[in-house]
Amino acid sequence: MLEKDRFLEKINFFIVIIFVFFSTELNGENIVSKVLKYNKNLHNTSALFIQSNSESVEEGVIYFGKERIKINYLKPRKLTIIISEKKGVYIDHDLQESQYFNTNKSYASVFFKIFNNNNPLEIPNVNISDSLIEINEEVEIDETIYKITFIYENNPIILRKIIIYENKESFELGLFGHENLKSLTKKFFSMVDPYLN
Q: Which pTM was predicted?
């Protein structure tokens, strides 16, 4: 009888361990699903930002559209960056000049991987705590490795910071003042050179 009781104790112990392991996994997957749903709902929203690195601080507004992201830098220089999954434009309003680039050959591609993703299993590198959720992605472009961290507040889920690491340099984009907007039109996200005459 004693042998049977020990055996049952061991079985119960393993069942509890398996239950705890799977409930933790399911809880983590559930939170990632909520983050992906939040990202999908970023369409037609904006947020104020402060971007900093070791040398400068810049301020502006970021707009999330359905297929494009528009970043307006307001201080200290007026710049605009508009990106889609395939292309982007950098507009220097002081110089009245625009430069186009391929986002597939830049770390901007990671933004669309995170913001347009529906599958929580495709987001493997996630750290979850009571107050924060971190999604970490890495991309190599022209032999340079970029590490990008998206930091969300956990309850409620709100995107608060994006950190981009390149070699030994990094810059942070702190987000605040999130706003839902009625509708951002395609024209608002137009990549046509505004100074083309």
A: 0.80
